[in-house]
Every structure is written in C-alpha cells, then in structure tokens.
Amino acid sequence: MVGLALAATVLVASPSTGGEVRSYAITGDAILQPLTGKQGDPARGAALMMDRQRSLCTLCHSGPFPEPHLHGTLAPDLAGVGARLSEGQIRLRVVDMRRLVPDTIMPSYYRIADEERRLAASWRGKPILSSADIEDIVVYLATLKG
Amino acid sequence: MRALWGLAGVAVAFVCSMVAATGLENGEKRSGFDFMTPETQALQTDDMSNPGMLWVLQGEQLWQQPEGRAEIACAGCHGDAGQTMGGVAARYPAFDEAIGRPIDLAGRINSCRAARQRAEPLAPESDELLALTTYVAHQSRGMPVAPATDARIAPFRDNGRRLFQSRIGQLDLSCASCHDANWGRRLGGSVIPQAHPNGYPLYRLEWQAVGSLQRRLRNCMIGVRAEPFAFGAPEFVDLELYLMERARGLPIETPGVRP
C-alpha cells in the first residue's frame, strides 16, 4: 500500500516556482538531512505547533499542548511521537505525508499547491510552511518521548 | 524497529480512513442539529428564542408588499404562503426553463422579481433576500427533504457530486474528506457535521445573523485556502443539488441555528 522505496534514496527535484521549496533526499520513509542544512529551534517549534492559523497542526492532532479542548480528533495523538519516529521520519511526514499515505487528509506542508485546484490567490507559489518552520517543528516533536 | 512501528501506525490509520470513506449510510444520516449542544438546540426549537424568526417575520412583511413597476406583491400571485409554499424548499433547486438549468430558491425569488414584479434583483446576502428566502423555506419546516426526480437535473447533480469529491485549495481537501470520511470527529474545537443543507437559511451564532447555504459553503472553501465560488455561481446550485440528494428524508429546519 505505501509504495515505499525502503532502501533506495530518492531525490526530489525542487519545483521551478520561485525556489521557495528546496530539493531534499528521501531515504526509506525518512528525510535524514534538515531542509535548511541546520538544526531547528525547539522553542519556536513548540509555539508554531499550537498556532492554529499558521501551522494548523492542532486542528487535527491532539498532543501534550495547551488548550486540549481545542485539539482536533482527525489524526493520531502526537504524545510520544519522538519515541515512535526518528527525526528524519517525522520530517518526511510533515513535508509530504502523501508519499506514505496517498489519500491522506494531512496537507503536504512543503509543496507548492496546484493552482488548478482553485488555490486562493494569497497562497499561490509558496508552501504551507517554510523549511525553517518545519525544522523548528521537527526538532520539537522529536523531544516528545512519551 | 522504530521504522516498523511508524509504518504500522500509518497502515492502521490508512485502513481506518478507507472504511470511513464509503460515505453516508442511510441509518447514519444526521442533521447538523444533532451535533450541537443542548443549549444551542433549545435556541433553535423554541420559536420565542430562535433569532432566525426575526427574518421570518421580516419575510412575511415583504411577501405582502407590492414591488417593482408591476406594483404587485409575492402574495398577489401566490396568495397565502402557508397554503402555497409548503414543500417548495424541500424539493428545490428545480429546473428553470428560462435559463435551461437548475435554479435555487433565492434565484427563483429574484427571477420572480424580474419577470413578474419588474423589480431590481435583491443583492446576495441582503437582508431582504435572506428574509424572503427564510420565510418561504420556513413554510416547509418539518417536511422531509425530497429532491425532484427531474431527468434534466441529473447532469448538474452529478457535477455537484464531482465538486464535493474534488480536492481543492492549499490544504488539498475535498468536502468529502471532512463530511463523508470524518463527520462526528473534531476539527479544532468544532464537531464536523455531515454537511446537510436542511436548516438554511439559518442563524449562525458566529455570524450574529441569518446567512445562506452559499455563505456556509464559501466559509468551508476559504477554510481550505481555496478561491470560493461567487455568490450565485452555478457551481453552488450544482453542489446544493447533490447535498439535497444526500440529505433526502431529513426534515427541513429553517430557520436553523448553528454555532
């Protein structure tokens, strides 16, 4: 079902639109290298996780975050995600969950959306989150050991 | 080992979403009303506290009021709405010969204004148009949704189904992603209802006003960061046709109340 290239490393070319999405390498079910080339900031990541307007994560996911009554129930609880998944595995799941679950409802956070899908003008040509945002979230989630 | 754990988690979630994606079975059809708190339900069921009843009252006045160069009221052609308008909202949208495609209730009201009253159309979401639409739809309250079986409508309803199932916007979600596969779960603090149109126009606490079905659909489209269809767009009528078919049998609630 998942069609994972378990051993092979796949290089994903960056789309030509504005270069806001850089290329990254997928190894198995992970992206081993930080998208920015350096480690993110977990404190910024924690703040971003809870930002319902920008990251949207808690619209679907619950987890050890403030205001649990505003957490969604559409997705797995993220408590202990850092024990279940490696940093690289978390990175691929945030970048493009669709590679693992083709019909997932989780948005691909690091991909330029297709304009033919009635994409609203203000969201054209950019991914949902920047590479730096994603790195901050990834290092933060990796600290959630259970 | 950790990788296997991750994969197993993804596989389980995947299978669950496959099962849920089969859509609405008949026995599980539930109005948005059923997902509300008892307090908000009470607001809807008690006419003395339902704020939507103010629009019904305004609509009753407009129904009697002569308009346009023909100086004739809705009542001049249709008489007592209580006698003539019962069941109309339960079968709309209906095929309109003049334009060769289906038309919704608000569209019908405006076409009567143009053709019979020779008056200017009422603006979408204007208080007058909402009041008249709410008043007319209210005459069907309690009647089951019963879409017309008009073969000329089928291709438009099919287009509505296609729109319902198409992923749109930056979040790349379809109406079905939420309302078929995940109704009853929570998106942030809100329970996702099944997307039935049987309460519209309705009073939304968040709007502090009565609004149309199209206003609700635009909200959902903007939520997934898609360009919403314009008020009155034919796509909205097609979507409504599909939603009405999906809601077949549920009672009309107009004016509903929603959070």
Structure description:
Chain A is mainly alpha-helical and 146 residues long. Helices cover 26% and strands 5% of the residues of chain A. Chain A is built from five helices and two strands; from the N terminus they run ββααααα. In chain A, strands 1-2 form a two-stranded antiparallel ribbon. In chain A, helix 1 packs across helix 5 and helix 4 crosses helix 5. The radius of gyration of chain A is 15 Å and the shape is globular. Chain A starts with 8 loop residues before the first strand and ends with a helix. Chain B has 259 residues and is mainly α. Chain B has a three-stranded mixed beta sheet. In chain B, a hairpin with a 2-residue loop joins strand 3 and strand 4. Helix content of chain B is 46%, strand content 7%. In chain B, 39% of the residues are buried. Chain B folds into two domains: 128 residues, Cytochrome c-like domain (Cytochrome Bc1 Complex, Chain D, domain 2), CATH 1.10.760; 86 residues, Orthogonal Bundle (Cytochrome Bc1 Complex, Chain D, domain 2). Chain B contains twelve helices and seven strands.
Question: Structural class, from helix and strand content of chain A?
Answer: mainly alpha
Radius of gyration of chain B: 20 Å
Q: What is the distance, rounded to the nearest whole angstrom, between the alpha carbons of the first and last residues of chain A?
A: 28 Å
State which percent range the strand residues of chain A make up: 5-15%
Total number of beta strands of chain B: 7
Stretches of chain B where pLDDT is under 50 for at least 5 consecutive residues are: 1-22
Oligomer state of the chains in this structure: heterodimer
How would the global form of chain B be characterised? globular
CATH architecture descriptor text of the largest domain in chain B: Orthogonal Bundle
CATH-defined superfamily of chain A: Cytochrome c-like domain
Report the helical percentage of chain A: 25-40%
Helix-strand category of chain B: mainly alpha
Instruction: Please report the first level of CATH classification, the CATH class of the largest domain in chain B.
Output: Mainly Alpha
- What is the CA-atom radius of gyration of chain A, in angstroms? 15 Å
Query: How much helix, percentage-wise, in residues of chain B?
Result: 40-55%
- Overall spatial form of chain A: globular
Strand order of the largest sheet of chain B: 6-5-7
Kindly report the CATH topology of chain A. Answer: Cytochrome Bc1 Complex, Chain D, domain 2
Main sheet: strand order of chain A: 1-2
- Terminal CA distance of chain B: 46 Å
